[in-house]
Amino acid sequence: MKHMTNVARAASWKTASSRSERSERIRSALLSAAAEVVGEVGYAEASVTMITQRAGVGQGTFYNYFKSRQDLLDSLLPDLGEQMLDYVRDEAVGGSGFRDLEEKSFRAFFGFLKSTPQFPRILNEAESFAPAGFQKHLDNVSKRYIRFLQRSMKNGELQDYSEGELEVVAYMLMAARSYLSQRYMSPDGRSVELPRLAADAYMKFVLYGLVGRPPEEK
Amino acid sequence: MKHMTNVARAASWKTASSRSERSERIRSALLSAAAEVVGEVGYAEASVTMITQRAGVGQGTFYNYFKSRQDLLDSLLPDLGEQMLDYVRDEAVGGSGFRDLEEKSFRAFFGFLKSTPQFPRILNEAESFAPAGFQKHLDNVSKRYIRFLQRSMKNGELQDYSEGELEVVAYMLMAARSYLSQRYMSPDGRSVELPRLAADAYMKFVLYGLVGRPPEEK
Amino acid sequence: MKHMTNVARAASWKTASSRSERSERIRSALLSAAAEVVGEVGYAEASVTMITQRAGVGQGTFYNYFKSRQDLLDSLLPDLGEQMLDYVRDEAVGGSGFRDLEEKSFRAFFGFLKSTPQFPRILNEAESFAPAGFQKHLDNVSKRYIRFLQRSMKNGELQDYSEGELEVVAYMLMAARSYLSQRYMSPDGRSVELPRLAADAYMKFVLYGLVGRPPEEK
Amino acid sequence: MKHMTNVARAASWKTASSRSERSERIRSALLSAAAEVVGEVGYAEASVTMITQRAGVGQGTFYNYFKSRQDLLDSLLPDLGEQMLDYVRDEAVGGSGFRDLEEKSFRAFFGFLKSTPQFPRILNEAESFAPAGFQKHLDNVSKRYIRFLQRSMKNGELQDYSEGELEVVAYMLMAARSYLSQRYMSPDGRSVELPRLAADAYMKFVLYGLVGRPPEEK
DNA sequence: AATGAATGAGCTTTCATTCAT
DNA sequence: AATGAATGAAAGCTCATTCAT
Fold this sequence. Notes:
Chains A, B, C, D: This is HTH tetR-type domain-containing protein. The structure is a homotetramer. In chain A, 71% of the residues lie in helices and 0% in strands.
């Protein structure tokens, strides 16, 4: 699926078998199309017409699946956000210890962006255009992050931080991922390439900041 | 003046004396009005009508001062950004040493938000809606930040970071300010109140991360 | 149909059966409405609102049929011009000889104006407001005219004129039709009544000028 | 005066001596500027701003000299029309006989266009945009033309035409001048160059048509 | 269920005119 | 008398949404 063209993927519902599966595929095609369009032109400029054309369905069809344009926009980030979290979880599985897991998931995040370079823009604009979805996403991610930090702390891997402080730190690290992904976005918005230097600096700062020790030489 | 209502402040040009002063005040009223409106409803929804009504001038007047709606939007962040930098510079003046200066300017940033709570949203959306202005602002701020970090490093106050790494760290800290300001925005978007805990956690993380030592007890 | 009011005619699409027929009727209603409006107030004042109201459709509907206001204006003269040429051809059919054909088509032109009194104004203004359409129309008409003159010349009916001269003469005769139609337009612009005297004078001048003999008594 | 640049001519009021002369010059500068502007962009697009800028006076000044934009537009053609008639009269003076006078004045008309190539467009559009001025102009010109034709007739130089017929013919010849001037306008609208062929064809047709004899060899 | 044409609210922008200086 | 900034009416156009097919 990864290498089908966008349109082909979008229109894949045409081969659906059962009625409900077809339905599911159209909905998904609309979401994918919306992700692409919003990634390219932003929420404000993403019109229903553009989205339905990209998805290969009629304009009116849109309203069989979403109550309104805003309804879809609200679904966009939560949908993508879960994909992102699933991806990162899968990639980081089997890691051990704070340092290893943090690095794996940091890299996995940027790995995810290779297939979904629209994500940073969608995330950034969602705060204004789909605030509910944005909050939901932030909660999801921060909760997971905080749990991870707390576990690491219980294992004695981190400096002494209170639970409230860990929440703040979690936000700072999410912020860092977000800013760095935008910072290293290609000008056309179609790919993100994080330089090794940036990844190293991130890890160095985080390890000093949380563990209190510099990264070990590899 | 600080506590006049927005509209009253905006319409203060009516008392202007000379013609050029009046002109200056209207331009400034339009920019202030735009900052308020964009802060409330975002770039995309900020219409010329809303802005001129808020500023207390006729619709057509807008185009005596700005070539187009986009022209004003492009001026918005650079304008506010300079105000912010001026404010922070004034507040941090007289501080000494990395720890002191960093803390002073961190707090000053949030102090600035008390008078301009629209800033975080404007900054965030500018990336999409006024990209040129956004880049300009980011360059301004990051350059100043990096210089500050380099100076601190020369003074032997920081761990060993390369110049390139310092740039990455600067971005991470700008990101942290941005995210935290949004995290602690009141739901109505009209004020930012950074809890002591958050400020402490920030300083703790930064000091561990950069200096390698925990914050001294005050 | 001829005597339905403008609005009623325009709104006749409401009784259309198939979808594509309905489409065709709306497009045609818009063109008719535009012809009327332009005939009354001129190109410059013919607003999309006026045209759609006259056609009995919503404003937005306009843009389902024409890319822009200018797009419709550009279609106006070519559209009417063909109607005019068709009408004149039909009326002049069966005539024989230069004198007969010229007179028949001259009268047919003014006959056409009975049903489309807006034509002279549209033609006149098109030069400024729809130059492409104007050129197209002039080419169509002049080519036909020149061919007719050349045929008459080959038949030995005319004085000796070179091909280039015939083109100039064709322009002069088109000019005459245009000016005379404007000269004898009723003050309200709603009808053209060419006096017998004018038609006679035209024919007399043309016959002397081209044939070299006065019109025969009828 | 003929060779001053437009702007210089327009602003020549600055050197005026008496108050009323200055006044007169500004009014005249506005009319000249309007002629240029309308010649270039047409009545519909000729804004007060463009005209005052071209004339070198402030925008507000306009309304000290004309009641409204339309007021000036209405004055435009009568003003230019008189200049044209004066010019043609001067050039044709001393001619003798219909043939000579007609040819002289025909050529003089095109001579006038060399210095005022805006004339055809202004004349053409005036019918729609300044109908009163247009009628006035047409009356002026046609009356003169008819008088000329009647005089020639009394001298036995023309075929037998009734007075009413002469009026129609006069219109036809005015139409011819107008169409030919537009036909041979350069694409940029800045000059008119009538080819010898066209002038010859015109004279040939007119002489056959009115005199009944071909042009004599020169 | 899928469609796409019809719709009007609402946008940005222009410009003739007014009026305080 | 000359000015140019202020103004709002009115324009062309877009697009989310509805609805008949």
